[in-house]
Input
Amino acid sequence: MLALRRPLLFAFLFGCAVSLFTSGRLTLRLAGPATLYWSFVPLIEIAALAVVCRGKLRSLSLAHAIDLFFAGFAPWLLWLTGLAAIWSWLRPVEAFAWTKPFWLWIAAPAVLAWSCYIDLRFFRSTLESHPGRALLGHRAISWPACLLWFMASSIWPQVASRLGL
Amino acid sequence: MAGGCLLAIAIAAGTWSDAPRPHPPLMLGPYRVLAADFHVHTFPFSGSTLWPWDLVLEARRQGLDAIAITGHDQVLAGQMGRWFSRLVGGPTVLAGEEIHSPGYHLIALGIESTVSWRLKAAAAMDEVHRQGGVAIAAHPLAQFWPAFDAEAMRKLDGAEIVQPIVYSAGNARREFEEFFARRRFTAIGSSDYHGLGPVGLCRTYVFVREASEPGILQALREGHTVVYDGVGAVYGDPALIQLAGSESRLRGSEPSRPEGGFLVPMSRTCGLLGMIGLSLCGFRLRPTA
Output
């Protein structure tokens, strides 16, 4: 249960954000299914964590490590809540004008840097060695996997044409 | 605890107020007027947030009569959405594809098998027409114009003239209008729904003689559409624009504020406060000690 409580809560809050983005309210019709199918994000994060922590954890179980790792997701959740606030309170015309310049290009990189710092400190305190390598490894596994599941068919033509495939 | 309670209140209020908006059929002259969104994406693989069946239900709530689910380089999402919508008596769903070539983006409506993004624009349009579909230029920004050579322009059925990108990219509106002025296309407004904002934003009003998938495709081939940009401009068939002018329901392409009275802002406020509460109490902003 320790390994699941925060990942499940994260997925649920993600589902809530999806409902607010689309309908401007929190409805079970959207939040429930979105929680289920957006749980691929915590699942991939857990899988990547298990890979980078394998055999290197310092006197704590993997379940405990998962719980501690997900504890550091507050910056992303607050960012998501901010985005949900924009999309649920502003008119779509205003929300489009607001989202791209500020929320995506300024706030998102700031949150990215902040979460990297939190995760680096997590790996430093829980792993016996190479916390920086673990952070890079975790990102290298989890982010492309999430991106592929989210938008594989959008990415492939760009990649294939650049590689001449 | 307080965050959880707020979320519970938000979900109760939001779910209680979550009814489809009233949408009686509209007849103008000999036509039935359908509200349609011909460019929406689903989860997974196409960069959106909702599964096809959730999208169908959301389109119905937004008062849309028709949508086209246009997966990036795949038609499976559209076929799933169409199957589900027939099952629940939802809006007409056209299976489609956004052909996502590096040089151009093309909406293929009413097709059954994937059209390759490797084809040149004109060849892709030939394949769309061979399958009985309609080809529409998706967000025709200047960067895509080189792919639309004379042959492609001759074969193109329609072009998006209003799209949410006009609200966020400075020169998009001017570029869409320049592209649209090159030939008389069917005017299309689409939400290009990727998860943010309502489905049906920038919708197309299609004037059909028969409210069915073939009827919609035929109306698109004949250019029987009207699109409002939400800030005063209107595009489409001049005679139909005049006909539509008599109907106040059609003006303003933006879906109106959600109905449901005080329950909607209550759901929104409690939901956001609950999310902040649970993010701060259940998670940490500072590194783990």
